[in-house]
């Protein structure tokens, strides 16, 4: 009789602890799933950010934004060359009549003809071509210039001295 009771008690205990273990495991699994999801979301966010950074390598002023694309690349005698197309977009609401584009770093140009459309002001500094200084870059419009860099990566640009009339 006593033995039977003991057996029943033991069985109950066993069932209870199994259920408890199950629920703990369930909670742990859920936590793990949430953690995995969070990690995935963080990774996706990071990837999106990286993609965005590649699209817009450098933002210049708030009104004139810079983005660049590599449009061509080749190798000559073991030297890498890349052609980049840089687009300046007037994101503001007023016309811009001139701006200075400064190549901050990684801008190694072999000869003057390696940069086109913009006009050189001084070393590593360029400004709008004269027709654009006359007509202005209207809100929402863009200008594209190009350069050849003796490497595979882009140069780093900034813009300053925006001129309004
Ligand atoms: C860069 O290239 C991508 C893909 O071809 C294109 O969608 C984007 O408009 C280009 N950006 C510029 C600034 O030319
Ligand atoms: C630049 O302007 C052209 C037409 O004027 C347009 O097709 C192109 O999408 C614009 N590019 C950007 C990056 O705004
Ligand atoms: C541009 O070319 C120069 C000369 O080869 C190089 O030093 C520089 O690193 C290149 N820019 C980038 C971003 O790779």
TrEMBL record:
Q: Which domain of life is it from?
A: Eukaryota
The UniProt entry, under InterPro entries, shows:
CBM_49
What keywords sit in the KW lines?
A: Signal
Report the leader peptide range: 1-21
Name all Carbohydrate binding domain ranges.
64-152
Any Pfam family hit: CBM49
Q: Which GO terms describe its molecular function?
A: carbohydrate binding
Q: What is this protein called?
A: Carbohydrate binding domain-containing protein
- What taxonomic lineage is listed for the species of origin? Eukaryota, Amoebozoa, Evosea, Eumycetozoa, Dictyostelia
């Amino acid at each position: 009789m006593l033995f039977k009771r003991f057996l029943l008690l033991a069985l109950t205990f066993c069932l209870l602890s199994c259920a408890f273990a199950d629920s703990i495991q369930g909670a742990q699994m859920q936590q793990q799933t949430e953690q995995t999801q969070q990690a995935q979301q963080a990774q996706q966010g990071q990837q999106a950010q990286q993609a965005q950074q590649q699209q817009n390598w450098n933002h210049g002023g708030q009104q004139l934004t810079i983005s660049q694309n590599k449009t061509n690349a080749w190798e000559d005698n073991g030297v890498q060359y890349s052609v980049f197309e840089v687009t300046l977009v007037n994101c503001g609401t007023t016309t811009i009549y001139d701006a200075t584009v400064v190549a901050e770093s990684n801008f190694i140009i072999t000869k003057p003809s390696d940069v086109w459309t913009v006009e050189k002001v001084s070393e590593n500094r360029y400004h709008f071509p004269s027709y654009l200084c006359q007509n202005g870059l209207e809100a929402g419009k863009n200008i594209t210039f190009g350069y050849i860099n003796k490497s595979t990566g882009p140069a780093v640009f900034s813009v300053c001295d925006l001129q309004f009339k």
